[in-house]
Amino acid sequence: MSQFFQIHPENPQPRLIKQAVDILRNGGIIIYPTDCAYALGCHLGDKKAVDRIKQIRRLDDKHNFTLVCDDLSAIGTYAKVDNQTFRLLKAHTPGAYTFILPATTEVPRRLLHPKRRTIGIRVPDNAIVAALLSELGEPIMSTSLIMPDEELPLTDPYEMRDLLQHQVDLVIDGGYCGMEATSVVNMIDEVPVIVREGAGNTEHFK
């Protein structure tokens, strides 16, 4: 049975943030709000938790997982970027974008696309996420909360609890945060490629 925390979207309660991070560190899966939709998250190094998320969403090995970061200072650890790419990322973070980048050896292989060796990087504009990441001290392994055979993410935390209370360890109710997934931009090559049009404005990448 999952826990259910109501966390203030602008002034997150430190006690609840710490409890949520303890759940992550102990191998738990959390549902948490971002700046455009709710997401599933777990500890970066926890294989069992990643496998549980794959089961919930019925994902195959070709799915690009995303590392949710508090800012771009962590990006050099997990992704390879040149100066031009970094400037582009800096201009659009925080925001509703997921950037597909070449991964470094710091990223566990099970999180990578098996052929392309890529990873998603995301810096949401959301106070709850910022508080979680500050307390955790490293990125959250994440994917949008889109159920199998659905096109849009779930939006109601109470519905999430009813649906997934036996499959996740914590549902964070941070209020309504939208129902559109991020825009996904592939930054592998010199010219950015829009993989998915979502909440973030992609005109700057065309």
Automatic annotation (TrEMBL):
The organism's place on the tree of life at top rank: Bacteria
YrdC-like domain boundaries: 14-200
Pfam families reported for this sequence: Sua5_yciO_yrdC
InterPro entries per UniProt: Sua5-like_dom, SUA5_domain
Protein's UniProt name: Threonylcarbamoyl-AMP synthase
Organism classification: Bacteria, Pseudomonadati, Pseudomonadota, Gammaproteobacteria, Oceanospirillales
